[in-house]
Write a structure and sequence with these properties.
Elements lengths: L3 H19 L11 E6 L2 E5 L13 E5 H7 L8 H14 L14 H6 L4 E5 L2 H7 L4 H9 L4 E3 L6 H18 L5 E4 L3 E6 L2 H16 L15 H15 L4 E5 L2 H6 L3 H8 L4 H7 L4 E3 L5 H12 L5 E4 L3 E6 L2 H21 L10 H9 L1 H8 L1
Parallel strand pairs: 5-6, 9-10
Antiparallel strand pairs: 1-2, 1-4, 2-3, 4-7, 6-7, 8-11, 10-11
This protein binds zinc ion (ZN).
The site of zinc ion has 6 residues, from loops.
């Protein structure tokens, strides 16, 4: 017999662990990550534009699992825009009545593939130190053997979900059980379990094993910056971006290291994961002198069609620029995360950014531009 209390309990549990893990900045930032719970044919999934740290029951979208499953029986066009638009429409059609004004997370189809009751998806910098490393795949195999499934870098949305569908099916056939820990290259981690407690056990067992192998961490103490120049930079950035721009300044030791010269900056120039593209724009810029800012920003805008949000200045560190306090601070938080990943990845053969093709896909992906606007 179906009891209304069961549903209330499952939502309480879902909200509880979403807020708990979502409030830990070591695990996820801004609107990143997502969670879900299944109850019979219904799946409750985080709505796009919500944040795990403060999501409530209303932030989740109730979906039909059997309707989502139909997506995997269909064939979609190869063209990126057409494929994503059509599969998004099918995903929207899988919403249950009463959910019309909500939009499910871009990773909904992926959540539906796990048969377990609860799914937790996060982007921890330490885990991404492996998923964004040159030797990441080999390291994952060595550390976790068959207990963790690795997914190579792939376009998010339908393509990622389809590859996960095939890989999870193959895993089950081979191992005789369902996968419950998945590492997505250049992205993050999925853990799934029937009990909420088991989510944390699985997540922290992965983190502990990686941490034991890490030999170097990013240093976020304030470094030795050129205090006489930093205000000139602020004034010039403000002049170039406009009076309504908000600048967040961070002279951390790690930022100063990456701003040491062009060669050091190049190690952090390309993005590691979708969140970084969404909240920081795909590429930062680097200048050595105050009078280089205007030209460098103008060239960037002409080439990319938008303004940069992260500026590295030799001797000064990192500046985040956006047109709201939140946007400016979030860009810096996400870029700090990127620097953490880059330094962690040094323990695993060095950092491996996303391919230009993947980066361009995310820049142009409607689902992500929707997310960043929320
Ligand atoms: Zn994600």
């Amino acid at each position: 017999m179906y009891l209304k209390e069961d549903r209330i309990m499952i939502i309480d549990e879902l909200v509880g662990f979403s807020n708990f893990y979502g409030s830990n900045e070591e695990l996820v930032l801004a609107g990143g990550g997502n969670t879900s719970a299944k109850d019979g044919d219904t799946m409750y999934i985080k709505g796009s534009g919500t944040r795990l740290c403060d999501i409530t029951a209303e932030g989740f979208v109730a979906m039909s699992r059997s309707k989502i499953a139909e997506i995997f029986t269909k064939t979609y066009p190869d063209n990126d825009k057409e494929r994503e638009a059509l599969s998004l429409k099918d995903l929207m059609d899988a919403k249950l009545p009463g959910q019309e004004n909500k939009r499910p997370s871009v990773e909904t189809t992926l959540h539906s593939l796990f048969p377990q009751r609860f799914v937790l998806h996060l982007h921890p910098a330490i885990v991404n130190g492996v998923t964004c490393a040159d030797n990441g795949k080999e390291v994952a195999k060595e550390l976790f053997g068959d207990s963790v499934l690795w997914i190579d870098p792939v376009k998010p949305g339908y393509t990622l979900a389809k590859i996960c569908y095939d890989t999870l099916t193959e895993y089950k056939n081979k191992m005789g059980k369902d996968a419950d820990i998945v590492l997505l290259a250049n992205h993050g981690i999925f853990v799934s379990a029937d009990e909420v407690e088991a989510l944390g056990e699985k997540l922290y067992s992965v983190i502990a094993k990686i941490r034991a192998e890490v030999t170097k961490e990013a240093d976020f103490e304030i470094g030795d910056f050129e205090s006489e120049n930093f205000q000139d930079m602020v004034n010039e950035i403000s002049a170039v971006f406009g009076e309504d721009s908000i600048i967040t300044y961070e002279p951390s030791t790690v930022a100063l290291d990456f701003a040491k010269d062009k060669e050091s900056f190049n190690k952090i120039y390309l993005p590691f994961n979708p969140d970084q593209v969404v909240y920081c724009k795909p590429y930062p810029i680097y200048v050595e002198k105050v009078d280089e800012i205007r030209g460098t920003v103008e060239d960037y805008k002409e080439k990319n069609g938008f303004l940069p949000k992260i500026i590295f200045v030799k001797g000064c560190g990192l500046y985040g620029v956006d047109y709201s306090q939140k946007g400016s601070e979030t860009a810096v938080a996400l870029f700090n995360d990127a620097m953490k990943i880059a330094v962690f990845a040094e323990s695993f053969g060095g950092a491996k950014p996303m391919s230009p093709e993947l980066t361009d896909f995310i820049v142009n992906w409607e689902a992500e531009s929707y997310r960043s606007k929320q």
